[in-house]
Design brief:
Blueprint (H helix, E strand, L loop, with lengths): L6 H9 L4 H8 L3 H13 L4 H4 L4 H8 L15 H8 L6 H15 L6 H15 L12 E6 L4 E4 L6 E11 L4 E7 L4 H15 L5 E3 L7 E3 L7 E2 L1 H9 L3 E2 L11 H16 L9 H17 L9 H9 L15 E7 L5 E4 L2 E4 L8 E6 L3 E6 L2 E7 L9 E2 L16 H11 L1 H12 L8 H8 L7 H12 L8 H9 L28 H5 L5
Parallel strand pairs: 1-5, 5-8, 11-15
Antiparallel strand pairs: 1-3, 2-3, 3-4, 6-7, 9-12, 10-11, 12-13, 13-14
């Protein structure tokens, strides 16, 4: 066919003096095709000097205008816009093709089929050279890992060095990076680094891709479901994200962060190798400066920098952060609720709803709170008591059954108990509450007085209160009443004389034999 003829080559050979027959023989071209090229060149008055610098396709079009050109009857989409849409979360080729066909239907132009649409888009990507951006969608994934190389802190006094580990995160779409120095790689540190990462980015993403370290992944079988660490899973859920660890021994599953780790070794560790740092805060400041320079470095094969692409294209697509920052927590499993309705933790006691007495519950402990769970159900929560406090009880009223037995002790309830003892006991408790600036400060001394009724009768305690009130102490307490009861001063006094006014004979004591002894003549 004429369209396959190398028209420029034919004209070049004719300019070199070859005849049409010689050209056809040397190039394995039919003489009719060679003749067609020569005739078209003569008709258009085209000479070799005119087309020597032109490409083959342009020479062919000049000689045979309109031939071999294929004009598509379908409406051509804006492929650059299609490519930008494909970088957004949740956008698929099927969705974009559906929107394209709707536009064609509205404008009355024919639309290409789905297969042709996909092939044309693939050709556009190859031609424009933007294939590297197709694999990652903006605002969808963050890859995290620990850096293999570490840094050092130097103690000013002892001169000893402490190893510093680097947590590294990277958004694959923009390659925007985050680095956090830590003193260990424990569970809490791993979670706190994630919290700092999301704060640095100013938003969250739906996918977190870590390695298979134990602080994140408990089990990653070849078949079956991945078992995640509970604390890590809950942290991800707090930021509306899912943990999708890379396959075991497959570093290409998180190639972006692996590449960033290598860059961190150069931009941060190597750049700061001659400086000595004495505190973690000081090191963080230096790392932040180097990290900012790294993110601002222009790309070699792509327009802009990590920072510019992140700010303009990816940051607007990040999910907003939760109103409250995630609290790092730890779990204690299988704690039994005691018969008093409380569960023990760190030598203190926290109430659980009374139907759970005797059951095993799980405790979630944060820096400030203790939460009690039974299975997936959250039963109650308490403010965590300080580590210096022991044998204290934290009780929620809602956790106790209804009834006076389970009422909280306060001044009115204490007075009710005093009224059952007697009027003097009421005066004593009232004066105790009057002597303290805050009513709660009088609860313990007032109850200490009333609890004397557990050892002595209410009548004796009432009598002791009456005696104490007659003394110089205006507000007697437990320390004043107990000696009165122990020495029996509250008891009625014994008679002091007999009829006739003679005092009773003094009893000297001794053994007194009975009448039976003397009846038997003393023979015993």
């Amino acid at each position: 066919m004429v369209k396959k003829i190398k028209a420029k080559l034919v004209l070049q050979l004719r300019a070199e003096g070859l005849s049409g027959r010689a050209i056809a023989a040397s190039q394995q071209i039919s003489r009719n095709s060679v003749a067609s090229v020569l005739e078209a060149a003569d008709a258009a008055e085209v000479r070799w000097d005119d087309i020597a610098e032109l490409p083959d396709a342009e020479v062919y079009s000049l000689l045979f205008p309109g031939r071999s050109e294929h004009q598509s009857v379908f409406a051509e989409p804006d492929w650059a816009q299609v490519h930008r849409e494909m970088a957004r979360v949740g956008v698929t080729m099927k969705l974009l093709h559906s929107e394209y066909t709707d536009q064609c239907a509205n404008s009355g132009t024919p639309a290409m089929g789905y297969d042709r649409f996909c092939k044309q888009y693939q050709q556009h990507v190859l031609v424009t050279g933007l294939v590297s951006r197709v694999g990652h969608k903006a605002g969808q994934t963050v890859e995290v890992d620990w850096s293999g190389p570490t840094m050092q802190l130097t103690d000013l006094v002892a001169g000893e060095s402490t190893r510093v580990y680097l947590f590294v995160a990277c958004l694959p779409f923009s390659r925007y990076a985050f680095v956090e120095p830590t003193l260990d790689m424990k569970q809490d540190t791993w979670l706190r680094a994630h919290v700092a990462m999301f704060e640095f980015f100013g938003g969250s993403v739906p996918r977190i891709v870590p390695d298979n370290l134990k602080t994140g992944v408990i089990k990653h079988p070849r078949e079956g479901e991945i078992v995640l660490n509970d604390a890590y899973r809950q942290m991800a859920a707090h930021y509306s994200a899912a943990v999708l660890p890379g396959r075991v021994r497959k570093p290409k599953d998180k190639a972006s962060v692996e590449n960033t780790v290598a860059h961190v070794a150069t931009w941060i560790i190597a750049a700061l190798r001659d400086q000595k740092f004495h505190s973690l805060a000081e090191l963080k400041v230096a790392i932040a400066v180097q990290l900012s320079a790294y993110n601002a470095e222009p790309f070699q094969k792509r327009a802009g920098s990590r920072a510019s692409v992140f700010e303009s294209e990816e940051k607007p697509l990040l999910r907003p952060l939760p109103a409250a920052e995630y609290e790092i927590s730890r779990w204690m499993y299988g704690r039994r609720v005691g018969r008093n309705g409380h569960v023990a933790w760190a030598r203190n006691y926290y109430s659980a709803p009374y139907p759970n007495v005797g059951a095993k519950v799980d405790l979630r402990i944060t820096d400030t709170m203790l939460e009690i769970y039974r299975g997936q159900q959250r039963l109650t929560s308490h403010l965590l008591l300080p580590e210096t406090v022991v044998n204290e009880y934290r009780t929620n009223d809602a956790d106790l059954p209804a009834g006076p037995k389970y009422r909280q002790w306060d001044q009115p309830r204490t007075r009710e108990w005093a009224e059952r003892v007697g009027p003097s006991a009421v005066i004593v408790t009232d004066r105790i509450f009057e002597s303290v600036p805050v009513a709660e400060q009088g609860l313990n001394p007032a109850l200490a007085v009333l609890r004397l009724t557990r050892r002595y009768s209410a009548e004796r305690v009432e009598a002791a209160c009456r005696i104490a009130l007659a003394g110089p102490i205006r507000s007697p307490r437990y320390a004043h009443l107990r000696p009165i009861l122990e020495t029996g001063q509250d008891k009625p006094a014994a008679p002091t004389g007999r009829a006739g006014g003679r005092p009773p004979a003094e009893e000297t004591g001794g053994y007194v034999r009975g009448a039976d002894y003397y009846a038997a003549g003393g023979a015993r």
